[in-house]
Amino acid sequence: IILFSHANGYPPRVYRDLLTRLTREYRVLGVEHRPLWQDDPAQLDSWQRFAEDVAELLDELGEPVHGLGHSMGGSTLLLTHKLRPQAFLSMALMEPVLLPSVWQFGLRQIGKFFPSKVPPIQRALNRVDRWPSQQNVYDHFRPKAVFKGFSDQGLWDLVEHSTTDHIDEGVTLRFTKEWEARCYALVHNVWPRLGALDVPLLGFRGGKSNTLAQREWLRWQRACPRGRYHELEGAGHLLPLECPTEISERYFEWQASLNP
């Protein structure tokens, strides 16, 4: 079983292409974090709550899993591993949130008291989040640089699985911009968890990432020297949505090397 943990703002079904490819050899379960089912973002005080939710799910599942996480979802799995270390057979992390320590502290403090001063939070709160139809969403997203690496079908997966009918008319985001901003404001320091990992590790970075810097990428490898690492040239922070074929192939190769 692969247990997949999604990024901030991206529901699990958005990753349909990658996860479908992985079902060739695995049963894949996607976790929906609190922003997709809890109403009030102010109730969230830490990413640790996400980890506790995943731990409860693992208890219900009753068998160990292969963890797979993207961005905030990868960081969540690192936090979950501390709670349920025996529940994981392996861990594959795609661009987990590993910021410079000083930045991380500053982001938490400024985000807590002056959220409008933090660029990611500001961008989230200013985001367009309502359209007449899904076609309008697609037309809005297609020219954006952040989605340049998406195939047309990949972008449609994003549109179809990240929007829902608005209470009045048209469509809106399932993962609200208020929730997205809240998650940015509570970015969690998971550096201490890397050294505690005792399962096989696969790490990915996008060569054009604006989130996982080269310095932190190398620091990650020093923290977990027995892991296997791949940097995908031309990809950005959204690499599982840009390069699903390459990631799935790398994943299968890695698992095969663990069980020759």
Automatic annotation (TrEMBL):
Organism: OM182 bacterium BACL3 MAG-120531-bin86
Domain spans labelled AB hydrolase-1: 2-248
SUPFAM superfamilies: alpha/beta-Hydrolases (SSF53474)
Pfam family, one: Abhydrolase_6
Annotated protein name in UniProt: AB hydrolase-1 domain-containing protein
Matching InterPro entries: AB_hydrolase_1, AB_hydrolase_fold
